[in-house]
Amino acid sequence: MQGRIHLVRHAEGLHNLRNDRNIPNAPLSERGFDFAEDLGHRFISENSNCVGAIVSSPLRRAIQTSLTAFHRILDSTQYPENSGMGVNNGVMLALDANLQEITDLPCNTGSGLNDLTTEFPGLKSEIQELHKNWHVKTGPDSPLTQPPSKRKPEILQQLEKTLAGLQNQPMRKDVIVVTHEGVIDLLAPTADIHMGQWQTFNLVRENGLLSLK
């Protein structure tokens, strides 16, 4: 049986709280961290021991949501030493630049690799796998050469590969995807996922096309 996709929208960002889109690579608000912790409790109560992979947007608020919400699932090496967060032999958080928010507003524009590594040293190896210009959204230096609508098949194909890689695991076949409103609208246009919430889907292929249902 193929695993499921749990599509998560990040918790409240500081730009949401202040209604200020000019906050660079907006972090979670203090309340957002509480919401993310609550998200994790609720998720585990409904989906215990089923997650084999977690993939996040590399924007700050999505990484913070992932690390805060899913510290009962993620590997302890991805957290600061002696933090008490994470579990031994846990799931490794992966980063996918295709999951970043659509627009190039300051709040939706990410940080360079060095800045990200300084802020999240436990994710150094995952950060270094990103394109050096992953956060550049316009111009000749941007790796995002296709319009946002073209991201959908790329994201879904990558999720299909991730699910396939979990098929030999007895229980942990599900994938958590932590992303943003704009990307959720691309992947699941009829979904209504508020900040700090999630919705569960099956990845299906019909007439050669992938979709979340």
Automatic annotation (TrEMBL):
- The superkingdom of the source organism is Eukaryota
- What Pfam families does the record point to? His_Phos_1
Query: Could you tell me one molecular function GO term of this UniProt entry?
Result: phosphatase activity
Record GO cellular component, one term: cytoplasm
* InterPro entries on file: His_Pase_superF_clade-1 (IPR013078), His_PPase_superfam (IPR029033), PGM_Phosphatase (IPR050275)
Q: Quote the protein name from its UniProt record.
A: Phosphoglycerate mutase
